[in-house]
Specification:
The protein is built from five helices and no strands. It has one domain (3-64). Helices cover 64% and strands 0% of the residues. The mean pLDDT is 80.
């Protein structure tokens, strides 16, 4: 599962933990633009997000995951 899509599921299944992720809504929104409206996205904006926003988000997610760097999404029951 792609990371931003996993964040959407994570927000529903673990809202207490998801609330600790800075800019979670913006990350999910950016994913939606990339997937559904990529033709409207300015290349410079996308590059700026890639180099300034994603690295801190990745560090924060690794910290929340205990440094493991990955997690398994289980199907909702």
């Amino acid at each position: 599962m792609p990371a931003a899509e996993a964040l959407t599921v994570f927000r529903r299944t673990a809202p207490d933990v998801a609330s600790q992720i800075d800019d979670l809504s913006q990350a999910v929104g950016f994913r939606n633009i990339l997937v559904h409206a990529y033709f409207t996205l300015d290349d410079a904006v996308a590059w700026d997000i890639a180099v300034t926003k994603i690295p801190p988000l990745a560090r924060q997610l690794r910290a929340l995951l205990g440094g493991g760097g990955s997690f398994v999404m289980r199907p909702e029951s």
